[in-house]
């Protein structure tokens, strides 16, 4: 089996590649990275001899065609995107243009070159916007409240249209909040990196934004396993929530992280970290995915936070 991961040098893509290599040895892993990103392949440095990497800008249709013709993928995991929610308020048009058109180009390439490939559209809980009910089911009204979320919802709808119109085997997953030490723009990673810097005397105070929002946390390694299981068992053309099961506030998460520090941590609000529009509650109902796959997160929150903090300590050495 040949598997193609778009954005393989990114945080989620690199962890997905690791999961596949460790658990599915008969699978050949291929990945794409934009030409202006390939000088920084830190996330895949330990597996680069086990994968095949292509320079490919998904806004360049010719490069997509070239890659699909060479790989002939049986499965495609589409993770490539501009995903920094805070930054999307500064460059909204760039985020929308990149994320929507890269998905459209890739889907059209699949239709033309490998229409029998399974296409996993890796989306986000952000498409739901501010919840009207909680926990959030897949039937929740979709009211994205930031440009990144709009771009991901448009991408979902494009994928659905290609399934309805041309029978592309589209599977849609919506990942909720997760621990991922390779993605520095996440609040969890930003907190852990600051704890590590304070421990090492490189910073005095931990800066944070809104601490009142409620989330469930899941380990990125569980998410990647969920992506693979979804590609094997889930129905086409319908979304599935992937997320944790134990709600806590961002402030609770920060206190747990501070309790694991080797030194006392002082923290304060930074106005620059507050979003113009914030989603205050992201608690998923994962029963639909469980009913289809019998999958639930395996890595406990405490273990995941320990891993996150230790990885961030390494990052600062």
Description:
With about 325 residues, this protein is an alpha/beta fold. The protein folds into two domains: about 1-175 and about 220-240, Rossmann fold, CATH 3.40.50; about 180-215 and about 245-285 and about 300-315, UDP-galactose 4-epimerase, domain 1, CATH 3.90.25. It is about 40% helix and about 20% strand. The chain contains ten helices and 14 strands. It has helices spanning about 10-25, 60-70, 85-90, 90-115, 145-165, 185-200, 220-235, 250-260, 285-295, 300-315, and strands at about 1-5, 30-35, 50-55, 75-80, 120-125, 170-175, 180, 205-210, 215, 220, 240, 245-250, 265-270, 280. The strands form four sheets. Strands 3-2-1-4-5-6-11 form a seven-stranded parallel sheet, with helices on both faces. A three-stranded mixed sheet has the order 12-9-14. The chain has a two-stranded parallel ribbon with strand order 7-10. Helix 6 packs across helix 10. The chain starts with a strand and ends with a helix. The model has no long low-confidence stretch (mean pLDDT about 95).
